């Protein structure tokens, strides 16, 4: 049976009808003093209402609204508000804006993001976002949560040791951008300009080091080339703002090329708000404005740090720094009151889009959501389905799936074999309930359980013998090993990539003793060098489950016994241990250079344990091209030729000089299931630019589709390829260009060439 959380018993004791609804944040229709104020009039445009409200505030009031724990303004009927809530993969109580208890003892805990990303399923990501925001709104209505959620984390998983890589969608910028777009759309569920909740893409930018060998995120200066910034680090954030229409972006602790990210006007005003057109607010990572002064010593006085952040485009400080030092910054003339007004306009606009100034919450859209809409059976079923879709089969010597008739007794061994909280990773809340791997497997077979290691970092082998005995007498052995938050977490980067403690020895000894097939299941956010297991014939299968969420044990068991045919693909490269000896975490370069091997599948060409995109199935698939254009034309913007200064290069055209609104070319790919089991296939499409582009990636992901194919049948998948979006690369100056010539598309084992040329028709005449 699943281990019940407090949720089940408490919910039975709480009558939904007795749950008090949240009082109005502002514009209470029962308040005769404020209900007629201009900023409360719903028939007026939001910008008019915002301007009216700001005009009524005093400077001290304005300053105390610049921080996450914003004060109440009783004379205007405005309640205090805590901006900091989290919803990375479910409503979380990490931030002070959300708490569990009473009618809301828990919330649905989905798999950690790195696991969900392995599904390569865009519709799933959006669906999860919608469920999370339903539960968030329900908790807001019940007075237990806010409406501003500082999620998702869309940083690039650049280095395999990063403790927070688990929170991200992986190492590929296109994958991360698509995840960001779809999860944000699900969370915000916009109706016109109205939002269900406000999401936030973080941490901008080039942030992926927490604490490694004495270098921490508070002191780190990320030296990043214009090229890497444009074609790697900024890509998911741009997608989040431009495509996802996110309501907020969070700037990071670190410096970027010598400037704190939260005090760089080129990054905040210039890029996020200027180039990308953010319609929302920019918030600092927590205490990062204080870090600028106290730790990085970027300015001589605290008020100068406050002024630099606000002038750069920061609107909200997670921390007290702006509340303390902005007044002196205004007094000294470092900033004006108008600068403060501009920041407030951005935050208050988002609050109004959320309906926080619309009076009674219960009368608004989503006002009917309550305790009965949290931890529903449908939500929990989606968490299970997400876990199933994210599990990756790394190795299989025909031992999986297990059989309920041949494998009646299963030895379940390992420090994560009966894991519960470990399965939900970090930035999680309180799960509705858990099903551990041991419990999941017990639904299919009789289990013999031995921990084997007392914790993931075990240093004693005194439990090994019992584990060996269990394996020796069982029909099959499942070892559930890996990491947990004591090994990888926020402010905890790894030093190496091997299994911690004595886990490797335990796995090898149990595999030698096992009477039946031995399956290694790995829980982790980051990659692990399990070369020993990959090469050991006695270990017949390896599964990566990531951190699979509250229903992880059920999902793992369903894959082991074939109820689910695995279809996940790795969203990051699994490097060998000796890779990290060559690559300091502090080197932000993506491309290889003298003695430096480069990073991620796009640039690193050395040996790997398992490559990006790797994932097996219990069936086999075959690809064929049904429709594949061989020529693509890039239309040029005719307005460019009106200037005498324009020079045309036949080698590569700047994307900004192309007419990128022209139609894309459609490719039809038939995916045939040539095996005898129904299965889901993830189709990954990569492109390679013409030879001779020294600054280009070797290949880059341009699209993906997840498709279910019945055994013996085929499905047609349609992929759009557009020169601007899919065949462009970034040069050394950070300029995106479309190389002319022969590009290659890689679709599984297929390779197709496309000739790309500039269309000068009607221009050069």
Automatic annotation (TrEMBL):
State where the protein is found. Secreted
* Keywords tagged on the record: Glycoprotein, Glycosidase, Hydrolase, Secreted, Signal
GO BP annotations of the record are: arabinan catabolic process; xylan catabolic process
A GO cellular component annotation here is: apoplast
Q: Which intervals hold domain Fibronectin type III-like?
A: 681-751
Its signal peptide is 1-21
InterPro entries, A to Z: BXL (IPR044993), Fn3-like (IPR026891), GH (IPR017853), Glyco_hydro_3_C (IPR002772), Glyco_hydro_3_C_sf (IPR036881), Glyco_hydro_3_N (IPR001764), Glyco_hydro_3_N_sf (IPR036962), Ig-like_fold (IPR013783)
Matches recorded under Pfam families:
Fn3-like, Glyco_hydro_3, Glyco_hydro_3_C
Gene Ontology MF: a single term: xylan 1,4-beta-xylosidase activity
Q: Which SMART domains match?
A: Fn3_like
The record's Gene3D superfamilies line, in alphabetical order, gives:
Glycoside hydrolase family 3 C-terminal domain, Glycoside hydrolase, family 3, N-terminal domain, Immunoglobulins
Query: Family, per the entry?
Result: Belongs to the glycosyl hydrolase 3 family.
Protein name per the record: Beta-D-xylosidase 2
